Amino acid sequence: MEVFRGLLHDASGAGAATHRALRDGPTGWALGPLVVPDDRLSTQDDDVDLSVVVAGGAGSLTALARRAGSLRLVAVESVLRDLDDLPGNAGRVVAAAADLPDGVDVHVGLPDGRGFVEAVEVVEAAGLLGRVDLAPPGAATRLSVLVEADLAFKATGLGADAYGPYGLVGLLMAVEALVDGADPEDAEALLAHVEPARATAGLGGWDAATQARVRRRLRGADVVDPGPTLDTLGRAGLL
Q1: Domain-located, residue 166
Q2: Is 237 among the domain residues?
Q3: Interatomic CA distance for residues 238 and 129, integer angstroms
Q4: Which residue range(s) make up the domain with 215?
Q5: Second label for 237, Cα 20 to 30 Å away, from 25, 59, 80, 224?
Q6: Within a domain: residue 236?
């Protein structure tokens, strides 16, 4: 299904060699960039697409911009840390992101805190992307705010222990439900453990328009076990 193209961001921490092997496999088309913290960048990563997670906020974005020319940088991720002033923190990240090369996606991590909704509005107005943590509680509520604001985003925290092997499918179904106007409580139920038959039936009927509508919002999802996840999705006939 086209909805999976480039959707799985490789957050395994296994490194570039393992990522290359998965990318070159039969289902590698579903794999997005390799997610790397900025303190682990190395020359071994120069031939794979990278999404770099910066640790130091707006200042780290400026520092990364100076190195961008030597990397296959497709995305940068910066999590807001000033929980007492999320909108102001978002504004500083927006300003620093202007130093990055054109074409690099900037995902702004939006934690719960004072001014969450206003920070979402700052990020959306600047044309940047969101980054939402699916760790409970409140994951579906956070998702619903981003969908309501029409802010495209990537998701993190989709661990197998929390959501099961079909957690990525549950996320897709939850986003589709929210886009169609579902309440967060309904989306929360879809984020729960998804049975294989339900996953196959739920997504198998999606037409191209539905897939495009979901991917316009959900740009990627960190996956800590991309190899097994690709195998699971393949066996279910979803890839």
Answers
A1: yes
A2: no
A3: 27
A4: 2-229
A5: 224
A6: no
- Residue 109: which of 95, 125, 126, 123 has the closest Cα? 123
Question: How many helices (DSSP H) and strands (DSSP E) are in the chain?
Answer: 11, 8
Q: What is the CATH number of the domain that holds 198?
A: 3.20.20
CA-to-CA dists, residue 167 to 43, 83, 112, angstroms: 33, 28, 22
- The pLDDT value recorded for residue 107 is 98
Asked if omega into 137 is within 30° of 0 (cis), the reply is: yes
CA gap 173, 189 in Å, rounded: 10
Q: How many domains does the chain have?
A: 1
Asked if 123 contacts 129 with a C-beta cutoff of 8 angstroms, the reply is yes
Tokens of 184: 């967060």
pLDDT per position as a tens digit, 9-23: 999 999 999 999 999
Q: Which two tokens stand for residue 237?
A: 């006939």
Sequence length of the chain is: 239
Give the least confident one: 3-7, 43-47, 82-86. 43-47
Residue the block writes with tokens 């206003």: 118
Q: What is the pTM of this model?
A: 0.94
pLDDT of amino acid 161:
66
* Model pLDDT for residues 131-141, shown as the tens digit of each residue: 999 988 899 99
Q: Kindly state whether residue 224 falls inside one of the protein's structural domains.
A: yes
